Amino acid sequence: MDGDGLHLDIDYVGSCGVVLSPEQKSSLQSSLIILKHHHKFNRVFFWGKIIGIKGDYFIAQGSGDDELIDRKTLYSLDCVTWGLLPHATTAMKEQCSVVKGRFIGDPSHEYEHIEIKKIGEGEEATEEENTIMIKEEDRLASVVSHIDEDVAVVPRRAYIKTPHGTVLQNRSFEGLSVAESLKLQNYFHFREAVKLKEKTLLEKADMEKSIDFLDPISDDIPRESFSLQAERGSGLVIIRSLLWQGMAFYHVPHTKKFGYVYFGTGEKNKNLPFML
């Protein structure tokens, strides 16, 4: 959700339970502007809130020249002071995946995980315990990265890819039509394409290279992992994720207004296949 219009755009997802107090709105509106100038971002987005036991994490992201790749993630406990989250590497994500349950709300908190390794073979085999300490700050970076990869959504044509491979905001984008906005295939994952590489040459023939460079969310498995709903007489489209419950995307047809936020505990719904 674009930080510049946060105080107004946040109301679009109010029906999804996304609520900020007047104090939080005011603090975020001011601090995000300062954040933008301090880090020299081209744009700043309010990503959402991860609810902890002792405190909540407010998340923001800033983009550079490439809207897709050149992004940094920051967090705050008070909507005023921001800290930069470390880049979530594959190794970090694997290590943090062993941590279960709610976030504490303290970035300096460390989770203790005991890893048991088997040494030797047969009757001479022994087990060795190895204690691993995992910082909550690293876990926060990993969860934010997972949510972005799984459920960050943008409308088709909202971004373009230049011949040099840079992803930019499409300034000629005027919004989806009402008919287009009601179809899941007109919404893309905002991450590097994965399934696009699996498509045949015949399927790619009808695509526009500068526009259709992302994966449509309609190709996700299970296919019912996103819920699309029209509100306000088709004047607003809301998409919710059932995989990461708390993610809400909105788009106002025939306008440039769109965005997504996540308000939840940061826990993935692994029971989704059994619920459908």
Commentary on this structure:
The chain is α+β, with helices and mostly antiparallel strands and 276 residues long. The chain has one domain. Strands 4-3-2-1-14-13-12-11 form an eight-stranded mixed beta sheet. Strands 5-6 form a two-stranded antiparallel sheet. Strands 7-10 form a two-stranded antiparallel sheet. A hairpin with a 5-residue loop joins β12 and β13. The protein is globular.
Short synopsis of the structure:
21% of the residues lie in helices and 29% in strands.
Question: What layout of secondary structure does this protein have?
Answer:
Blueprint: H1 6-9, H2 22-39, E1 43-51, E2 56-63, E3 71-76, E4 83-84, H3 90-96, E5 110-119, E6 126-135, H4 136-151, E7 153-155, E8 159-161, E9 167-169, H5 178-181, E10 187-189, H6 201-205, E11 226-231, E12 236-241, E13 247-251, E14 258-264, H7 272-275
Notable features of this structure?
alpha+beta; 276 residues; two-stranded antiparallel sheet; 7 helices; single chain
Helix content: 10-25%
The largest sheet has its strands arranged as: 4-3-2-1-14-13-12-11
Share of residues in strands: 25-35%
User: Major β-sheet, in short?
Assistant: 8 strands, mixed
* DSSP strand tally: 14
Q: Ranges with pLDDT <50 over ≥5 residues?
A: none
Termini separation? 29 Å
Shape: globular
Gyration radius from CA atoms, angstroms: 20 Å
